[in-house]
Design goal:
The protein contains four helices and seven strands.
């Protein structure tokens, strides 16, 4: 599970995503959240998580993205749109610590993929999130 980021879509789908080696962390995060990024402290259980960040679209609320209930509960802060959970070391984003992922899975977070341990490529996750968003729009119109 090393070198994965935890991505939670606005509808609660959770993925372990392996970044593209040639892509900067900034570009990777902006691609997943669909715009400029903003850091939200991870405040799970009313305790700030050391060396953890949640990255979101900084205009998610303004753009009326759906409230991401799963990420909002994890951070104890209202989050709109897709969220990326990452580690933090010396001013740089790092992959999400395995201990954090394991704790969330132990508390009931269901990871998408075979064996609940499959990592996803950025392209594959973006396709699934797009399909999920389209399905939600279609369901609203019924």
């Amino acid at each position: 599970m090393q070198s994965n980021y935890l991505v939670i879509s606005e509808h609660g789908l959770a993925f372990l995503v392996k970044p593209e080696p040639e892509m900067s962390n900034l570009k990777f995060l902006q691609t997943i959240v669909g715009g400029l990024i903003e850091r939200v402290p991870v405040n799970s259980g009313h305790v700030l998580e050391d060396n953890m960040d949640c990255w979101v679209n900084e205009e998610g609320l303004i753009q009326n993205l759906n409230i991401n209930m799963t990420a909002s509960i994890i951070c104890n802060h209202m989050i709109a749109g897709t969220a990326v959970f990452a580690g933090y070391d010396n001013g740089e984003s790092t992959p999400c610590p395995e201990s954090f992922i394991n704790r969330l899975v132990g508390q009931g977070l269901a990871l998408e993929g075979s064996n609940a341990r499959r990592w996803w490529t950025l392209d594959d996750v973006m396709k699934v999130i797009e399909l999920d968003n389209e399905g939600a729009k279609d369901a609203k119109s019924l």
